[in-house]
């Protein structure tokens, strides 16, 4: 006797929307990785060209260039890891894994915290700029050239991406907390019923022990 297989539960719209937002954020992070590494060479060249007119020594210029390259590579690596992580969370949400929903909430919380800290650091730097002594005048001149070395669209795009990522984390966390998402992730999957090998209309065969002797 056979039983029809039950149709899988349909994913609610809030889960699909949260998954779509995560995938968009993953693509944006991956695009940021590519663009960040692509503009690095031009940025370094522009910085070196502008640094020749300062009182900084060649060694000081090389040190700032090293820091500039390391920060760009580190940002690209973190963005690539973020893209992979967000894509993995999206796939886990589509599969209805409750643990992945909890992990997504954790990632969203950390992302919002990191965004708030970045904004706080930026506001603090604008409100109280770094003051160096007279002996560090060349360092102050070099640090002031870094922002101008990037393309004119680079800082606005970064600011827009930061705000967009923060809003994306907030939207995903909210969607996964809605009642429809709770029902989807809290559902109980019933196992398939046991099918008897006896033909219809006949009782199942009696149990036959594998050995005629009872165990001792």
- How many DSSP E strands? 0
Main beta sheet strand tally, sense and closure: none
Q: What radius of gyration results from the CA coordinates?
A: 29 Å
Low-confidence parts lasting 5 or more residues at pLDDT below 50?
A: 1-8, 188-198
Tally of helical runs = 7
Average of the residue pLDDT scores: 79
Give, in order, the helices and strands: HHHHHHH
Shape: elongated
How much helical structure, as a percent, in the residues? Answer: 55-70%
Name the structural class: mainly alpha
Beta-strand content: under 5%
How far from one another are the termini? 37 Å
Count of discrete structural domains: 1
Characterise the protein shown here.
There is one protein chain. With 216 residues, this protein is an all-alpha fold. It has one domain. The protein is built from seven helices and no strands. Helix 1 runs antiparallel to helix 3 (58-94), helix 3 crosses helix 5 and helix 4 runs antiparallel to helix 6. The two termini are 37 Å apart. The model is unreliable at 1-8 and 188-198 (pLDDT under 50).
Task: Draw up the topology in text.
Layout: H1 13-38, H2 40-51, H3 58-94, H4 98-127, H5 137-149, H6 154-175, H7 179-185
Short description:
The chain is mostly helical and 216 residues long.
Keywords, please?
mainly alpha, 216 residues, disordered N terminus, elongated
């Amino acid at each position: 006797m056979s039983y029809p297989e039950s149709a899988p539960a349909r994913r609610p719209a809030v889960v699909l929307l949260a998954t779509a937002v995560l995938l968009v954020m993953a693509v944006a992070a991956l695009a940021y990785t590519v663009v960040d590494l692509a503009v690095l060479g031009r940025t370094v060249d522009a910085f070196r060209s502008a640094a020749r007119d300062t009182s900084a020594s060649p060694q000081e210029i090389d040190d700032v260039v090293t820091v500039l390259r390391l920060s760009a590579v580190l940002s690209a690596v973190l963005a690539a890891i973020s893209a992979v992580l967000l894509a993995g969370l999206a796939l886990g949400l589509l599969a209805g894994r409750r643990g992945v929903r909890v992990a997504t909430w954790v990632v969203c919380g950390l992302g919002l915290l990191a965004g708030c800290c970045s904004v706080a650091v930026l506001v603090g730097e604008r409100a109280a700029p770094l003051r160096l002594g007279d002996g560090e005048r060349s360092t102050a001149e070099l640090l002031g050239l870094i922002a101008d070395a990037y393309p004119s669209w680079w800082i606005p795009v970064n600011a827009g991406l930061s705000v967009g990522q923060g809003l994306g984390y907030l939207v995903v966390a909210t969607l996964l907390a809605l009642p429809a998402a709770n029902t989807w992730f809290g559902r109980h999957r019933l196992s398939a019923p046991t099918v008897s090998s006896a033909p219809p209309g006949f009782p199942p065969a009696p149990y036959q022990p594998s050995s005629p002797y009872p165990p001792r």
